[in-house]
């Protein structure tokens, strides 16, 4: 029988030797050799999550399976969660492949897909895989929430004027170079005096501030970032859906790191911003 192999590793699993691409390849070829199968093609997705089907090599493999001259009858994976961690994707793609005369088999979780017991076992393995994925996401979010409540960094770049500072296993902000700190203060001071975003931008570019080109949107992003008053805010957006959460769901920690401006300057700048908001910083 001619088969193809599908190998996948997510970015979080790159360092796991048991799940590494070479380890998967060795296990798959050994299993195929024992069965007397011939591997005619290999598909590999590196640093790709199986939460969705948006994986280049996975989609190329599915497309190849739908061709009349595909030349293979099976897709061999190390474990079923390499194929997908989504139960829905398992059902959809396996049904599509079955119509094309192609089955999906696992080298480490062998089942008999044509028998009732095999269908049940394979379904249970897929459900367990999806549960693991959902539970892992839940535990990760719980850990991030606790991290945020303590005022620590939950990922991403530090704002202009700050640098990330490690405290044991936690990360927080410390003040960046004096030049950057001074630029941030100048932006807030000019805004408090009634300057608009475009005027502040032109002044910063005239000064050559920070050795970069400034835009009104960059100025606005700084003026609206409460990190500069020492606040740490997390959960503005739903990590899963990407939608904006209501303010009551935000986690706000004051004095989480050194402030560049005080509340008086922040409030003065925000008052002017509110008055100018309809004009979009003209």
UniProtKB/TrEMBL annotation:
Keywords: DNA integration, DNA recombination, DNA-binding. The active site is at residue 10. Residues 2-151 form the Resolvase/invertase-type recombinase catalytic domain. It comes from the Bacteria. The keyword DNA-binding applies. Residues 159-279 form the Recombinase domain. It holds the Pfam family Recombinase. InterPro entries: DNA_bind_recomb_sf (IPR038109), DNA_bind_recombinase_dom (IPR011109), Recombinase_CS (IPR006118), Resolv_N (IPR006119), Resolvase-like_N_sf (IPR036162), SSR_resolvase (IPR050639). This is Recombinase family protein. The lineage of its organism: Bacteria, Bacillati, Bacillota, Bacilli, Bacillales.
